[in-house]
Design brief:
Length: 336
C-alpha cells in the first residue's frame, strides 16, 4: 500500500548511535544485524521450509531466543525460581509457570503469546513462560501454538483462543491479562477481538509490545527504519508474513487487527516500542485507534530502541519491564 504521490528522496548518510542510550544499549546497537541467512527454499515446499526453519533454529546459540520474550518482560534471568508444567488442551499445549512465593489462591494469570509465528515453540515457550512469570510475579500461561508452514492462519489464532477459553473456566475475566511481543502481540490483539466477537468476556487488560498490526506494511517506519532497526530485514519479514497468512486477505481484522472495530469493546492496553523500531508506526497507529474508540491506552517509546529493544541486556529493557509490571498490577487490582 503506497501513496500515489512521489516518494521523498533521502540522501545517503550515516546515522550515529545515540549517546543518550546506556552503554549496554549502545553496545547492542553497535552489533548491527547479525542475521545473514541463506536463501529460503520455495515457500510452497512445506517440508523444505520446515527443515530450513529447524536448521536455522538449531544454529541459534542457546538462550539467544530468550530476548524475544525477555525484552518484553525483563532480562532472561529474572532471579525468580519458577515451577513449570505442560498442560494439554484439546490438542493445544500450554506451559504454565508459577513463580516461587505466589500463593495457591492467587488467581492472577498472564496469558503470554510468543512472537516470530514460525519459531519459539516447545522448550522456548516453556522458558518464555518462566521468564514472564518471574518478571511479573504472577502465574503465566504460554501458548505453544501450532505454526507455519504446516499450520498457517487461522490455526495459531484458534490455538490462542482455545487457551483463553480454558483460562475462563477457572478464572474470572478480571484475573486475566493477555500479552505478547511482535507476532505474539498481533495474536494477543486478534485473540481479544475474536473472543469478543464470539461472545466471550474481555480480559482485564492487554500488553502489546511492538506489534505487526497491519500486515499490508502501510506504516511509515516499514520504510524509514530500514537499515536502522538492527533486528529487521524487509525480505525476511515478507517471507514470514507470507508463511503466516498463506494467501489470506491481509486486511482481515483477525490477520491485521488494525482493521478491527475497537468501538465494540477492548480492554485497557499498554503499548511499547522504540524510535528505531520498524513497527513504531504500527504501534502508534494502534494506539491512536484505541484512543479514538475511547479505550484507555498508554504508549511508551524508548529512545533508539529497535524491534527487540536491547536483547534484555540494558537498563532500558528493565525500565520497560517495570512499566509493564506496574500496568499489570494496576489492572489486576484486587484479583490476587
Amino acid at each position: 500500500m503506497t501513496s500515489p504521490h512521489p516518494p521523498v528522496t533521502v540522501p545517503e548518510r550515516q546515522v550515529p548511535i545515540p549517546a543518550t542510550l546506556s552503554e549496554p544499549a549502545q553496545a547492542v546497537m553497535a552489533m548491527g544485524n547479525p542475521l545473514t541467512p541463506k536463501p529460503w527454499p520455495p515457500l510452497d515446499d512445506r517440508e523444505a521450509v520446515q527443515a530450513y526453519i529447524a536448521e536455522r533454529d538449531g544454529l541459534t546459540p542457546p538462550g539467544s531466543a530468550g530476548p524475544m520474550v525477555a525484552s518484553c518482560y525483563g532480562s532472561a534471568d529474572t532471579g525468580v525460581p519458577c515451577e513449570t508444567e505442560r498442560i494439554e488442551l484439546d490438542g493445544v499445549g500450554v506451559y504454565q509457570a508459577v513463580p516461587q512465593g505466589v500463593a495457591a489462591d492467587d488467581r492472577r494469570v498472564h496469558l503470554v503469546i510468543h512472537g516470530a509465528w514460525i519459531s519459539g515453540g516447545g522448550e522456548l515457550a516453556r522458558s518464555g513462560a518462566a521468564m514472564t512469570a518471574g518478571a511479573l510475579g504472577a502465574r503465566t500461561w504460554a501458548v505453544d501454538y501450532r505454526m507455519p508452514p504446516f499450520h498457517p492462519f487461522p490455526t495459531p489464532l484458534d490455538d490462542c483462543l482455545t487457551a483463553y477459553r480454558a483460562l475462563l473456566e477457572h478464572h474470572r475475566p478480571e484475573d486475566i491479562i493477555i500479552g505478547g511481543m511482535s507476532g505474539g502481540a498481533n495474536l494477543a490483539v486478534a485473540t481479544i477481538l475474536r473472543a469478543r466477537d464470539e461472545g466471550l468476556p474481555l480480559p482485564t487488560a492487554a500488553v502489546v509490545n511492538t506489534p505487526p498490526i497491519d500486515l499490508t506494511k502501510a506504516g511509515d517506519t516499514h520504510h524509514t527504519s530500514q537499515g536502522l532497526d538492527i533486528s529487521y530485514s524487509a525480505d525476511e519479514l515478507e517471507i514470514v508474513f507470507q508463511l503466516y497468512t498463506d494467501g489470506h486477505d491481509r486486511t482481515d481484522p483477525y490477520v491485521s487487527p488494525l482493521f478491527g472495530d475497537f468501538t465494540k469493546g477492548f480492554p485497557p492496553t499498554i503499548l511499547t516500542t522504540g524510535t528505531r523500531d520498524f513497527l513504531l508506526s504500527d504501534t502508534v497507529r494502534l494506539h491512536r485507534k484505541l484512543l479514538a474508540a475511547d479505550v484507555p491506552a498508554e504508549l511508551h517509546v524508548w529512545e533508539g530502541a529497535p524491534h527487540f529493544m536491547f536483547l534484555g541486556m540494558a537498563p532500558e529493557d528493565h525500565e520497560r519491564a517495570t512499566q509493564v509490571r506496574k500496568f499489570c498490577e494496576r489492572h489486576w487490582g484486587g484479583a490476587a
